[in-house]
Structures are given as C-alpha cells and as structure tokens.
Amino acid sequence: MQFRYDPEHEELAQVVRRFLDEVSADADVRAAMTSALGWDPATVKRLAVELDVFGLAVPAENGGAGYGVTELGIVFQEAGRALLCAPLLSAALSSALLLDVGTGAAGGRAAELLTRIATGDAIVALATRQASNARQTGQGWRLDGTHTWVLDGHVAETFVVSATTELGPSLFLVDADDRGTSREQIETVDGTRRFATIGFADASAIPIGDADSATAVLERSHDRALILLAAEQVGIAERCLAMATKYAKSREQFGRPIGQFQAVKHKLASVVLEVEAALSAVMYAAWVADHDAQLVGEVARIAAYQAGEAAALAASENIQIHGGIGATWEHPAHLYLRRATVCRQLFGDPQAHLEHLAQLIEARA
Amino acid sequence: MAGVLSGPYADDLPAYRVALRTFLSSPDLDLWRGCYIDDVAEEMRFVSGMVRVIYDADFGKYGFAVGAGGLGGDVRHWAVMYDELVAAGLPLTGQHSLLTTLAQPISRYAPELAAKYLPAFARGDEWWGQGFSEPEAGSDLASLRCRGVLDGDHYVVSGQKLWTSHGATASHTVLLCRTGTTESRHRGLSMLFLDNDMPGVEIRPIYLASGRAELAECFFDEVRVPVDRLIGEAGQGWEVAMYLLQFERAVYAWQRTAVLLERLGALATAVPSGDLARQQLGTAYLDLIGLRARSVETVRRLAAGEAVGPEASADKLLLGAAEQSVYDAARSLLGEQFAFSSDPTLRRWGQEWWFSRTTTIYGGAAEVQRGIIADRVLNLPRG
Amino acid sequence: MDAEQVTLLSASLDEMFVDAVGDVSAVLAELGWDEVVAEDPVVATRLLFTAHARARARTTILDRLVLDALGGDVPALASAVLWPVAKPESMVCGILTHLPGDDDIVVAPLTDAHETSLAVIRGADLVTAPLKTFDPTLEWFEATVAAPADLVATTSWDSAVDAARRALAAELIALSHEVLRLAVAHTGTRTQFGAPIAAFQAVRHRLADSRVAITAAEGLLDVAFDDGGPLAARLAKAQAGRAHQLVSGHAVQVCGAIGATLEHPLHTFIDRGVVLDSLLGRWDALVSELGDLVLTTTTAMPRLVEV
After folding, report:
1. Are A241 and A271 in contact (CB under 8 A)?
2. Does B88 touch chain C (CB under 8 A)?
3. Which of A174, B22, C30, C257 has its CA 20 to 30 A from that of C73?
C-alpha cells in the first residue's frame, strides 16, 4: 500500500504553511515564548477565524469543519514545522474527548464548550495524566487532587479531569474559577508550550460520560494525542532536515560546501530515512484513526515512537551540522530540539511506547 | 636555576596529592563547596576567589614554571588538582579550562610574557580568552582571515573572532591571526597577546542554547599590538596553535573525566535501577574510565615534554563520546523530569546536556578529529 | 625489556604458534619462556596472547594461565579448566577448550552466593560432546560431570578470573588490530569512483572510530595490569570485546563482499573474537555489571586511574 496525501490535503498543507510563515516566524515564536500568555491572542484568533484550525475535526453541527485526524495531522505537522505557539493541542484533544462522551453530557455544557473551543474562544485543558479523588456530597460531586503538567492549564477556563470514584474511574468538568481550584505555571525546557500544576481542594465537579466508559474514552484520547503529537514531530524533523540541508549547501570549509563531505552528507541521508519512516507511520496512523478504530492503539504507538526518534535525531544532527552557530541562543536550532525533547516525553517516552506496543501485540496474539 | 626555586612537591606527586587533599578539606574552602551558579560571569568571579586561596597557599602554583610565578612541576600536578577539587566537592570550571589550554603555550613560546602576565591568571585575578575560530574559519582553522599588518614596531590587527570561551570577562586574548598572505594558509599565521582594553577591541557575549553566556565574539578594529606581544616568532602561529591544541584536547579531557565521574555518581542516585539504567550507566562508566586510561598516557607524555600531536585526537573523540554518554544517559533515565524541570538540580542536567552537545563541535569538530586520525595515524590515502 | 627483545620474542612466538594445537608448554620451555615471564610477567602475557591471536592458534595457554593462577589450590597435574557457562543447580557443566585424557585432571569452579570452590575431576568422569562454536576451527567440548567430584577450597579463583580476563582482553585487542589492518589494506587499494575507497570520509571515519575504540581498550588493559584488581580487569575485557565488535562491523562493511567470503582472512579474526568475548562474561553483560556497580556505589565513583 502506498500512502500519499490527496491534492486537497496538499493544498491544506500549503494554506496552513503560508499562513504560519506569516504569523509564526522566528521573531513571532520568540515573542510568544517570552510573553506571559505563551502565544499571541491575535494570531490565535486569526487561526480560528481564517483557518478554522480549532474546529477542524469538530462536526459541522457543533460549529466545526467536520474533518478527520488526517487533516488535523496535517495542521499539526505544519505547526511543528513553524514552532507554532498556540493552544492547538489542548483544543484538539478536549474537543475530541467531549464529542466522545457525548455533547449532551453535563446538561448540554459539553456542547456549549465544544462550540466555543471550535471558534477558539474557550480553552479546555485535560487534567488526565493523574486521577483526583471524587466523592458525592449533598451539594454534588467534589474533587481533591493534584495534576501535574497540564497542557495550557495556566489559562484554561475549564478542566476535563479524570478522577477515581467509588465506582471506578470517571471524568468530570471543573471550572478554573471554582474556589477549590488552584494553578501554578511551570517551566519546561521548551518555552513554546505552557504547562501548569493544577490543584483541586473540595472543588465542585460535573460528571461527564458513563462511569464505565471513562477508561475507554481516556485510551482513545491518548491514542489521538499520540498521533497528533507524532504529526507535529514529523513537522519538526522535516524543518530541521531542511535547515541542515540548506546550511550544508551554503557553508564552506576547506574550500567547498560542507555538504560535499560524506560525514555531513551521510548524516543528512540518515535523517531522511528516519523522517520518511516517521511520515509514513504518521500518515498510516491518521488513516487508521479515521477508518479502522480497532488498530489505533498499535499504529499510534508506532507513529509516536518513530516520530519521536526522527525529531530527536533531526534536531540533534541539525545542531551538529551547524557547528558552533547551531548551539547559540540566537539561532533557532535549539528551539526545535527543545520542542522535540518535550514532545518525546509529553505522552510517554519512546521506551514506554515500545513496551505498550509489545503488550498490545501480545494481547492480540 | 629552576631546580633551586621549585617547590617541595615539584618532583613528588604522591606527596602533593596528600598535602593538597588535606588543604582542600579545610573550612577555608567551605564557601565554594557544592556551588553551582547559573550565571557564567558570576560563576567565574566567584570561583576566582577559590583559585586565589589555593594559589596563595602555594598549591595552585604547581604546573607553572618557576619563572612565571610557579613552583615547577608539570601538567600531572594539574591532573591531581582536578581530581582532588572534585573529590572535595569544589568547583572545576572555566578558570581551570582556560589555564589548562593557555598556560603551557605562553610559557614555552613567550617566557617573558609568561613571567609578566601568567601569575595573575594562575592566581585567578584575571583570565584570558583564546581567539582562534572565526565565522568563516571553524573546523578549517587555517583559512582564518583576522589580519595583523606590521607597521613599525606594532601589528595592526583587524578582524573578528567567534566562540571565545569567557571572552566577555577576559582581560587578554591569545589571538591567532594572519600576518602573511591569504594564500599562505597555515604558514602565514602568528600568535599575539592582546590586552582587551586596547583601543579597537570590542567583545560581546554569545548566549548559548543552554541559556548560559559561556562564549563571546570579538571584534578588532585596527588594534595596535606591540611586536613584543608575539607568542613565538612571526609566522610560527600554527605551530603554537598545534602545541596549544594538545592541551585543549588531552589535558582538558582528563579534567572533564573528574567532573563527569562525579556527575555520573549523582545521576545514579537520582534514577531508578533497571536494565536500561544498568546498560546506560555501565556504558558511561566504561567510556569514562576508558578515556582516563587513554588520557593518563597522554598527560604523562605531555608532562615529559613529548609531542603528542595527532594522537591527541583520540583523546578528543573519546571525550566527546564519554561526555555525551553521561548526559544522554541523564536525558534518557531522568525521563520526563528531564524535559519538565522546574527544580534547579534537574535544570542543571538540561544545561549540561546542552554543553555536552558542543563537545563534538568545539576544538575541532569530531569529523575533523576522525580525519586527523585517518590521515596521520592510519595513513589512509587522501581524497 | 627493550624493543628489540620484544620484536625478537614476537617473531619466535609467531613462528611457534603457526598451526599450533593443544599443549605448547614444552615448546615454550624450549624458548626459555619461564625466564621471560620472570623478567616481565605483564609483557610476557601480552606478547603470548597477542601472538596467539595473530596465528589464531588453538592451544591450551588460557587454561594454563588459570591453573597457574590457582597455584597450590589445585593438583600440580591439573591440565584443563572446565569453563563456566550459565549453570543449572548442583551439576557441574561447562566448556572444555580441549579434550582431556581419561587420567588427566580437570578443574571446575563451583560458585554459590558466597564463595567459589573447585571441583577436581578425572577426565574419565566427564561426559563430553563436541561443541560447535562461532569459530568453526575450534574443537571445543561441552562437558558434564558423571561422578561425584572432590571439592577443594580456593582463595585464588577470583584473581585467576581477573588474570584470564586480562589475557582475553589482550587477545581480543590483537584480533581487533588484525581486523583493522586488513580493512586498512583493502580500502587503501580498492578503487571505486576513481579513488581508493579509503579516501572517502564514510570509510575513513569508520576506520578512525575503530582505531579510537582499540586505543581505549589498550589503555584499559594497561590499567588492568597495573592495578591487578577485578574492576579494572572487567573494564578491560568489556572494552576489548566492545571494540572488537565495533571494529568487526566497520571492517565487514568497508571490505565489501570480498570481506564476507570464506576465502578472505577477515572472518577468521572476527569469528575467534566472538567466541573469546563469550568467555567469562560477554562485553554487554560486563557493562551491565558495571552499571550495577554505578547504581550501588554510595561514595565517590572509583576513578581507578591516577596520573
């Protein structure tokens, strides 16, 4: 089977790339990194209005464009390439999760949030890495717990929280301005993404979805996260490869472009192999996510592993090929390596993906 | 005459080690124990205080010529100093790297300049930059363009240098420049000793990807440097540079092993055990002791005044591998803490990991070192 | 020992080891080897095992080295070692590098959690079967003990292992040198794209990395002989095995198809190294043990090498 993007997909990629070239150039990225919010709100608004990226995979009846993971993956690939600073990943994951539990959840609150996520007006963050404790009281459900590394948690208006109840794992919505909610922004090696530690102390929560489906919903969310992040890592890798190749053609030492030396040439060739393998794995995973839910667990991990390796290798070799200049703060090479480093850890490291993959294969056998 | 004035430990390395170890354990040095400072300039300033205390107690004078404020001995005394500093929990930083690289060449090729200037450097009162690389001459050092034009009893220096370690806070620059024609390649180079406050010198820090300003870029606009500031003869710059690089590649490698062994120990206490940890930590330890086993021979040869030449490239390659082996183990074994690190101890791993990336770039990229071994050790045909 | 003596001895050993099989004690005695050992045991060991590697000889010198190191702990007539392999409980089994006669004495280490004792076995009490190894020229055997064996206490087994690891490291290093020598020779003469292939960076850098890996192994072996302890011996054998694997991989690649033929000598030095690496701990297993050491060390990491 050969995987190629359709012409419409190519066009989508072109449109997004042109747009991001304009709004996410090196200076824009550095400005966003040092800003309090972590992105430029005007850019985010334009992304929502002009490109509809936040609602891309949200059905039309919920205010979105109704596309699939493939199209979303293309956007993430471009976002990685441009080091885009925007709450894109949290939007894609929270909207998919709300759709999964049903828009009727929480008395229609899910539907309302979904519409506003799709227009870029609401940031809903997933606090599902750890579970809080949930208990039912006379005044409804209450949560206690701490959630680390909540993506975009520093400004989210609402959190989707996983919590343990007497009946097992469940999902809840909690408002950021509930008086039982606290948050603290945390630094990572990558300034292009923002994270916060979220604390709940007797915070009021609204349950969403059935108690017995929460685990499956979270698994599906995790699979989707792996695929989208893998797409982003392919974008990072492609961009690093392009930068390194361009530099190798123009930088001269010993009287010729360094790209003429096999040591450099072969490094680049090795990166090409990794990137191509990662791109195929990501395209396949996205196709599977859109067409054959049975296999998603496996292919998502293959994509995650392969893209994680490709981005790390491409970003490292980019620095080695650039020599001294590549190791400076001024040069963008390190920004890509930083983003790749956090991507590699965000939803489990490569080793974890391989172990999980082995378990899935064993379980299937 | 040198023998008359040299110190009691100049010829007695074991006794030097014992006495130094006792001295370094004294409370006078507690101020510096366990320190790690984020800001590079601040770190240099702070650690210089420690260098001074050790120098004033005479222990820091070994490995320096008697005529240059030293008490004799050789680079093996430095190797002992590095090991004992780390063992005592004391910092081994930029001061020591710069001395490792620059002190021997100036002593050998310009004893008069060494007599006048080296004591202040060895004492930590000041430090010097090494002006070799240029924007268009990195690994291909012999193509450098920074010019020194003879005008009476001065050289008029114009050009640019890049990647000068601690250049922004240095008092002097050891500068490799072209005094011959452009076509002369390595034959037309000379080494000069500049004061960084001479008119026409401008130095700006370069921030590294780690966020630390270790390096600098230097601009020279018709800087008038007296000819008596030549290190070696005019046209002898390449020879001086190659002599210097032996120390930068080999003795510095020993220095790093001392630090890296300590870091490996710290890493081992911070990570859970498991097959991957055993494999990666074991490999890093093997790499480090393998480097020491190689380096000890090189250090001894340099101490005996032998030329190590192209063989020092093996030390440099082993250093690059060992350095990256330790920090890649950290990156892999610290897991998500490596990426998500608000804690200063963990952030330090990240900064050092960045530095480890440059080990295969500075001082001649790994690719160039492999080329040297292929050419001059294995005598392979050239392309 | 001066350089001239070393060269002369090397030449004599090379000559002696051509087609040498089995016990070479008598020939070594004729060479006056005891005096060489008495004068400089380290140089003697290195020369002996280096020449052994060059000739790809199949003698009993490693068994002899271990038995000598065990000294008075074993009967003077002992002539073979039963090399330990991953061993089932309460049964002595292992590898013989040569087949002992019925009346020959074989020594086998038995290690439990606390200590090692030695089983002293008559050749007749062993059940043996030929063992196919990675090196088809070796005629080794698997053996299990059929009858109860006498156990003797020993305090020297660990140091005998150290000595054997150093000797194996010396042999592995020599094999790696031979592999690299063949690769340098081939790539310097083989012309493609109008130049010797050793002129291409992809080839040069592989060979340079090979050389550097051997250099590190040589340094560690120097240290192991100076130090005499178990940690240094383990490091030396680990790096020697690792270097051999790296050099072999590069050499096979740069020698192209010819290097993979039975006719070309390259494989003989590679095959032998693979087998020797497997005695007393493969390099990756030793690395894992080193990792354990790093993880369990609570004081400063052993620096092992001092100026």
Report:
1. yes
2. no
3. C30
A230 vs A224: CA distance, rounded Å = 10
Contacts of C241 in chain B (CB under 8 A): none
Determine the residue of chain C that is closest to A266 in CA distance: C202
Interface partners of chain A (CB pairs < 8 Å, 3 or more) are B, C
Closest-CA residue of C relative to A267 is C202
Test B383 with C216 for CB contact under 8 angstroms: no
Task: Count Cα atoms within 13 angstroms, Cβ side, for B152.
Answer: 3
Tokens of B317: 């390659």
> Which residue did the predictor score with more confidence, B181 or B91?
B91
Q: Which chains lie within 8 Å of chain C at 3 or more CB pairs, if any?
A: A, B
Chains touching chain B through at least 3 C-beta pairs below 8 angstroms are A, C
Put simply, the answer to whether C294 touches B264 (Cβ < 8 Å) is: yes
Q: Is the dihedral of CA B240, B242, B247, B252 positive or negative?
A: positive
Note whether C295 contacts B281, CB cutoff 8 Å: yes
| For helices C201-227 and C41-55, angle between their N-to-C axes, nearest 10 degrees | 140
Q: Which sign, positive or negative, has the C-alpha torsion B21, B27, B29, B30?
A: positive
Sign for the pseudo-dihedral over CA of A271, A275, A276, A278 = positive
- Cα distance between residue B345 and residue B340, in whole Å: 12
Query: Using a CB-CB distance cutoff of 8 angstroms, which residues of chain B are in contact with residue C201?
Result: 367, 370-371, 383
Please report, as a single letter, which amino acid is at residue B115. A
Segment A39-59, tens digit of pLDDT? 999 999 999 999 999 989 888
Residue with tokens 């999980």: A356
State the DSSP H helix or E strand holding residue C242, giving kind and residue range, or none if neither. helix C230-259
pLDDT in tens, B197-230: 999 999 999 988 888 888 999 999 999 999 999 9
Q: Which of B83, B277, B367 minimises the CB distance to C295?
A: B277
Burial label for C257, CB within 10 Å (0-12, 13-18, 19+), is exposed
Q: What's this model's pTM, rounded to 2 decimal places?
A: 0.89
Q: Among the residues of C18-113, which ranges form H helices? A: 25-31, 33-39, 41-55, 61-70
- Is the minimum CB–CB distance between A291 and chain C shorter than 8 Å? no
Q: Do A263 and B370 touch (CB under 8 A)?
A: yes
Active site residue B183: no
- Choose the mutation target among B162, B340, B351 for the interface with A, i.e. most A CBs under 10 Å: B340
Query: What residues contact residue B309 under an 8 Å CB cut-off, 6+ apart?
Result: B242, B246, B376
Are the Cβ atoms of B371 and C201 closer than 8 angstroms? yes
Contacts of A195 in chain B (CB under 8 A): 340
B313 in Cβ contact with B278 (< 8 Å): no
Measure the CA–CA gap between C244 and A43, rounded to whole angstroms. Answer: 57
Residue B357: pLDDT band (50, 70, 90) is confident
The DSSP annotation for B314-363 comes to HHHHHHHHHHHHHHHHHHHHSTHHHHS--SHHHHHHHHHHHHHHHTTTTT
- Amino acid (one-letter) located at C247: V
Say if residues B233 and B58 touch (Cβ distance below 8 Å).
no
Assess contact for A20 and A43: CB atoms under 8 A: no
Q: Could you report the per-residue pLDDT of C64-93, keeping only the tens digit for each?
A: 999 999 988 888 889 999 998 765 454 568
Closest CA to A344 of A147, A193, A242, A205: A193
pLDDT classification of B1: cutoffs 50, 70, 90: very low
pLDDT in tens, C173-209: 999 999 999 999 999 999 998 999 999 999 999 999 9
ipTM of the complex in this document: 0.93
Contact by Cβ (8 Å): C217, C239: yes
Q: How far apart are CA B76 and CA B62, in angstroms?
A: 9
| Strand spans (E) along A4-79 | none
User: If you average pLDDT over residues A60-72, what whole number do you get?
Assistant: 89
